[in-house]
Amino acid sequence: MSTNSIKSDALEPTRAELRGASVGQKVGRLLPVYGLPVLTVALILLFSALLPQTFPTLLNLRSIIADKAIIALLSLAAMIPMATGKIDLTVGYGIVLWHILAITLQAFYGLPWPVAVAIVLVLGLLVGFVNGVLVEVARIDSFIATLGTGTVLYALALWHTNGRQVVAVLPEGFLALNGTRLLGLPVTGYYVLGLALVMWFVFEYLPVGRYMYAIGANPKAAALNGIPVERYTMLAFGLSGLLTAGAGVLLASKLRIGQASVGLEFLLPALVGAFLGSTTIKPGRVNVWGTVIGVVILATGISGIQQFGGSFWVEPLFNGLTLLVAIGIAGYAQRRRAAGRTAPIGNRTPNAGSPQGEKA
Which ranges of the chain would DSSP assign to H, the alpha helix? Predict the structure, then answer.
């Protein structure tokens, strides 16, 4: 069974492609790159005009950040294995166990909250590496491997809580991890921004990011160029597990209770955000700012629809339809990329996202 659950390749136009092109041709080439950000701005302006009393307000901005920051962190976590052509479903299952452990380690075992948080983060990192071993050493498809691992984590959460809520009085320092406001906005929004900046720098300017992109584009070619594919794929899963555990800590700080029924609802929107990220900025390749924009457009659309009186089922419906659209666009981008590879050599245009364009 192939381990490449997701192909990762970029389709952004080069300067050579845009030079000398007509205005219409430039718009056609740039629309896939910047279409989603433009749509996001258009949605914000539309809902602001239709709902001037409620949508363009600081209160609504705070609500969106507070509600979607954890999803944004999970989307960024899922993006890392996607860069190597793999998928990690434990971003949805793992957060169930991690937010429970973050509370029970303090409430039941009396550990100081920094120690409890450190233990959860280490466990998340270890589970991520286990996923990497299953995928790269045992050669199990990443979808199957992480689905199995995630189900085990969910079962452990059910066993640990016996299906009951975990309620405890938590220290103020721990609650401040999620409850603090900075410049009038929830601190979780700054976590997302800081993480996005770090990941953007790593993926765009450091060898480790280029290696992961090269692996996602063509693992065999990456290996032939001396890139240790197994090592970097396992690293990708480990980092994904670490970020998932961090999101679990923030969820515990936010909810102040632990329950196994909370967490799985984050899986779909997290994956949708990451998939949407592969359709913009660098179409055909997952990327940091595309992922952030994907989460923003989900948050904007859902907030606006709900303020119009949308029912409780609107959010999962919106997420599901958006996921289908995102996968469809990503598939179309991959077919265009494949068509470009099969074109006559004289008609091809070098592409920055190809494995040859990645410097090891």
Answer: 15-18, 23-50, 58-83, 90-107, 113-136, 142-161, 172-179, 187-205, 207-217, 219-224, 229-255, 267-277, 288-307, 314-342
